[in-house]
Amino acid sequence: MNNNQTAIETHHLTRKFGEVIAVADLDLNIARGEIFGFLGPNGAGKSTTIRMLCGILRPTSGSGSVGGYDIIKQPEQIKSVIGYMSQSFGLYSDLTVEENLAFYSRVYLRDWRQAKQKREAIIETMGFGQYRNQLSARLSGGWKQRLALACAVVHEPQILFLDEPTAGIDPVSRRILWDILYELSRSKGITLFVTTHYMEEAERCHKIGFIWRGRLVACDSPDNVKSRIMTDELLNLKCSDIHAAFETLSKSGKVVDVNIYGDELHIVVPNVREGAETVRGLMAEARVEIYLLEPIAASIEDVFVSLSRKN
To answer: Which residues pair with 13 in a beta bridge?
Structure first.
């Protein structure tokens, strides 16, 4: 099933819990060294998929391989080639940074000399030098997540699963963490399987997949997903009263969709030229002054909202 260029592959992968179908007929093909973003609302099936791919949860039907190992027949072998970082900080708070890394390095690596070497390398790579003797409980949120990532990759896995790795940390820490992830993919060739609710993070992935109620509804590069899914066009509106504009457009029945983005509105229309005329007319009726009205390219967030509404 799996060739040397493929890290993760599934065919009709399905998991049921009683009568509830958590994941249905999932087909994936993720190349080695690729950063794959897995998107979807809470309860869509993302974590269930990861548990099956990690060999923790047995599928109801279908097949798959991770790192060349069968997810049904070889779950223990899969665990030797993957790393996993959860959305919640799952390390030992009463151990220091170095002690946490020592524990995880010995879990994955039997040779204590190799474990120590890998541990020292990751401490240097991720900048833990000044924190190595500090209790993990006393680290900031960003440094805790960095430590969780360090423990997940201390053994240099082929494939790394990250379940909302940047949830709850500040934007600067998020950017730093993503810089580290990019470097792991680029220099180490590690395949990254990332779930996230941050759409700007999805833009940074080589490929993204949208899952909705257990079914994969789109899977391609960010640019291709945007061009294929967003068959309508998009207008950006800045105006004197954003709330009045939103209410007017929402109730008009003359636009496909409208959403608030900060102090702007993104308005989905079948055609930007005719749509702009419609918006100007509606704003004139509502006595809302237009500061800016222009066509814009769709973002991944626009696509996500569109897919959610369609499904």
So the answer is: 26
Domain that holds residue 296: 230-310
**CA–CA separation, 298 and 231 (whole Å):** 10
3 state DSSP class of 21: strand
Residues forming beta bridges with residue 210, ordered by sequence position: 39, 218
How does DSSP assign 64-82, residue by residue? EEETTEETTT-HHHHHTTE
Q: Are residues 204 and 255 in the same domain?
A: no
Q: How far is CA 244 from the centre of its chain?
A: 34
How many other CB atoms sit within 10 Å of the CB of residue 93?
Answer: 12
Whole-angstrom distance, CA of residue 120 vs CA of residue 254 = 61
Question: Is the residue at 158 inside a domain?
Answer: yes
Helices (H), the chain: 46-53, 75-79, 97-108, 112-125, 141-153, 171-188, 199-202, 222-229, 242-252, 272-286, 300-310
Q: How far is CA 97 from CA 87, 100, 115, 228, in A?
A: 19, 5, 15, 46
Comparing C-alpha atoms, which of 50, 13, 44 is closest to residue 28? 13
Q: Sort residue 104 into left (φ over 0), alpha (ψ -120 to 50) or beta.
A: alpha
Structural domains in the chain (count): 2
Q: What 3-state class would DSSP assign to 39? A: strand
The CATH number for 257's domain is 3.30.70.100
**Mean pLDDT (10-residue bins), the chain, 311 residues:** 78 96 96 94 92 95 96 94 79 89 85 86 87 90 88 90 85 87 88 90 92 93 87 93 96 93 93 96 97 92 78 65
